[in-house]
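Please check what follows.
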Amino acid sequence: MDKISLTGLEIFAHHGVFDFEKENGQTFILDCTCPLDTRPAGTTDNLAASLDYGALAKRLTALFQEKTFDLIEAAAEYCARALLREYPLVRSLSLTVKKPSAPVGLPLAYPAVSITRSWTPAVLPLGSNIGDRAAELDQACQALATQPDIRLLKTSDWIETAPWGNTDQDPFLNGAVLIETLLSPQELLQTIHTIEAAQGRQRLVHWGPSSTTTISSSTSQTSPFPIPSASSAPSSWIPSQASSLTGSIPATEKPSPPSGSQQKNKKTSTPSGSSQTVCSFFVSASVPPANPHSSRPAPAPQKAPYRRSPPPDARQRKVSAPRSKTLKTS
């Protein structure tokens, strides 16, 4: 990934735990790195297609001096979130705040704090079964869209479903929204609970009626990179042997596990005469078992590496020491 960086940006500010730090101020050094695709700017030579690092440096300086914080962690968090909100091209950034004049009392170059923040996608399910259900859901979506650290991207259709768990209640109107957020999972959950409380949500009965919109607490943040799977890949990408793994295996053709291995089988009960899918996991300490649905043979055990014998002339020969001659004197 390409990136645009600011290195060694010196900013005079009044951050610190002690009163004299807030009163006198000191110089901080900031490093900021923004990953982004620079090819549009590189191919067009147009500044509008890139990130103006001069304007970014000035804005970062203004944000760092805008408020006074006890901790440089708080100053870094405030600046990082503000930059991500204001610059659409910046999807993530890393920010380092160095404090060379920190009153440590020991020989130290500088303490520093480094953070990385980004827009993270998340899917939130919603539901309501009391009052004007559609109006309650629309109101919840509007409340999400007004949050500074949440962007509402897409909204699904509202679908009426029967209650689950506690069935003695009115049907639900359910749906889901796709968002991206700068919040952590815990912060996002707290924001959701605040919106629910503002609309009169009360948790009185488990799986009971929702007095207003129910935004599921089981929100799941997803990775910005899709996880590939065989079902989503084109057919040309799937090997011919892999297509047979998606089908069912008749019970009469179940492969037997190799000897000396540990086996765990999970079977699903099916009517007699029908096929059943059997999922087997084999754990072997030496050679992995062969796949019964693959034409590739199982790998053979590795032999000890062959050591070539040295040539005869290179071998050490036993050489006897020459006998000393004794001189006889008459």
About this structure: Helices lie at 19-24, 39-44, 53-66, 72-86, 133-145, 185-198, 240-245. The domain at 3-118 is CATH 3.30.1130.10 (GTP Cyclohydrolase I, domain 2). Residues 217-294 have pLDDT under 50 and may be disordered.
